[in-house]
Write a structure and sequence with these properties.
- The chain is built from one helix and five strands; from the N terminus they run ββββαβ.
- By secondary structure, the protein is mainly β.
- Strands 1, 2, 3, 4 and 5 form a five-stranded antiparallel beta sheet that branches.
- Strand 2 and strand 3 form a beta hairpin.
- The two termini are 31 Å apart.
Length: 91
């Protein structure tokens, strides 16, 4: 099973769009979530207060897309559950 759960803050304004499929039109919401990776930076026994974050581009569809678009803004806390896909970059 491929289940991913991310908890963090919305980094971009959620953008909703319509995607045309061969048999129907689907609502799609695109946004980015910043997730704290648990690393806290120390330099020579002095706390710098620097955290490291990972950024994940997320897509939601249909009723979930509409709910995210209406209820979340940049900086909102969010927990997402779904499937993760890795896209391979080709030059």
């Amino acid at each position: 099973m491929d289940i991913t759960i991310l908890g963090g803050r919305v980094c971009t304004i959620p953008q909703i769009s319509l995607v045309q499929l061969p048999d129907r039109t689907v609502s799609c919401c695109k946004f980015v979530v910043a997730v704290l990776d648990g690393y806290y930076e120390y330099k020579e026994d002095v706390e710098t207060g620097l955290h490291r974050y990972d950024f994940f581009e997320c897509l939601a569809f249909e009723s979930t897309a509409k709910m995210i678009n209406h209820n979340f803004v940049k900086g909102s806390k969010i927990i997402c559950a779904g499937k993760m896909k890795n896209h391979i970059f080709e030059d």
